[in-house]
Design brief:
By secondary structure, the chain is α/β, with parallel strands linked by helices. The N terminus is likely disordered. The structure holds guanosine-5'-triphosphate (GTP). The site of guanosine-5'-triphosphate has 22 residues, from helix 2 and strand 10. This is GTP-binding protein.
């Protein structure tokens, strides 16, 4: 680094932006919730992009003082990139209200086009500084996704997210043994040799290791990918789709457990991610379920409000999803449903 760049950085008062990425279910929302609830004294504007039609993450992000902008009608790296630019523009007009910006991408996003946004638009580049791309990696599930062979021209998002990372939060180390951690670390190193890897469980990372770290290095990116600033074309794996269900009524607790458990046991290789908020008969509390492949967790959510309509919102993301089958399976769990005997 020259004296000139040091001086330039010292006077750089642009707002730092962190891009939080990582494959489906790797722990992005868990980290976001940590950041939003920790007493760090920072004012963070959050932009959240969710994959799936029914918008569940907004209910799973904890209440916080911070402002949260939802972008649920497309993928941040392609269809709603215009929305991202508009939100950033609106934020810049009231930059006295926050100290930094955090963008959580979907689990299927390519971080490169999101990063490009900070270099290709002059107004944005003059006001905002891409601080780091922080990638969450699920130590228990990442290897098969890295191994997936995609059709010609189609990106492997899990690989891209690691390749572009300035920091890797190697999460869910509680679910695997040392040998698996070593194997995952060596796969990460093969994709992105110099990256700093921070092993964690439940995304318990010290914030100073991921926020305002000045780690994004355009020169390094251009050395790896000379077309980074000019090549805006990328192709998602269209065989990965989502099915969202939004159904009024209450479900039978036993039946929904049995159905979801059986579904993920038998189809969990193809169902990468599932999550939902359920109205279980006889309970005043919402039920939240979180599935990552075959691993299923259920937790109690907030209480239903008095006049609130009991409804169930579920999303499944993966391959070979059959909407009819999922709708029928869920309908059989509803209290009003006639169950075949
Ligand atoms: N055992 C274990 N579970 C974790 C850990 N981190 C997160 N989880 C759980 O994994 C599930 C997915 O975590 P999220 O934070 O929602 O993951 P995400 O990356 O935001 O998921 P998408 O937004 O769907 O891509 C949740 O049930 C979390 O509680 C961890 O380190 N260990």
């Amino acid at each position: 680094m020259t004296d000139d760049t040091t001086a330039a950085e010292a006077t750089d008062d642009r707002v730092p932006v962190t891009v939080l990425t990582g494959f489906l279910g790797s722990g992005k929302t868990t980290l976001l919730n940590r950041i939003l609830t920790e007493q760090h004294g920072l004012r963070i504007a959050v932009i959240e992009n969710e994959y799936g039609e029914v918008g569940i993450d907004d209910a799973l992000v904890l209440d916080a003082e911070e402002e949260i902008f939802e972008m649920n009608n497309g993928c941040i790296c392609c269809t709603v990139r215009g929305d991202l630019i508009r939100i950033l523009g609106a934020l810049m007009r009231r930059r006295d209200k926050f100290d930094r910006i955090l963008i959580e991408t979907t689990g299927l996003a390519d971080p490169a086009p999101v990063a490009q946004t900070f270099f290709m638009d002059d107004e944005i580049a003059s006001e905002l500084r891409l601080d780091a791309i922080v990638t969450l990696v699920d130590a228990a599930h990442v290897l098969p996704h890295l191994d997936e062979v995609k059709p010609e021209g189609v990106e492997n998002e899990a690989v891209e997210q690691i390749a572009f990372a300035d920091r890797i939060v190697l999460n869910k180390t509680d679910l695997v043994d040392e040998a698996t951690i070593e194997q995952v670390v060596s796969r990460i190193r093969a994709i992105n040799t110099p990256v700093e890897i921070i092993p964690t469980a439940h995304a318990a990372v010290e914030l100073e290791r991921v926020l305002d770290v000045g780690a994004f290095d355009l020169d390094r990116v251009l050395a790896d990918d000379p077309k980074f600033l000019t090549d805006t074309d990328h192709q998602h794996d269209l065989s990965v789709t989502s099915v969202g269900l939004d159904v009024e009524g209450e479900v039978d607790g036993d039946r929904i457990n049995e159905w979801l458990g059986g579904l993920l046991r038998t189809r969990g290789a193809d169902i990468f991610r599932s999550k939902g908020i359920l109205a279980v008969a006889g309970s005043d509390q919402q039920y939240v379920f979180q599935g990552v492949h075959m691993l299923l967790l259920a937790e109690g959510g907030r209480e239903w409000r008095d006049a609130e309509t009991r409804r169930n919102r579920l999303v499944f993301i993966g391959r070979n999803l059959d909407r009819d089958e999922l709708e029928r399976g869920f309908a059989d769990c509803l209290m009003t449903a006639k169950v075949a005997v």
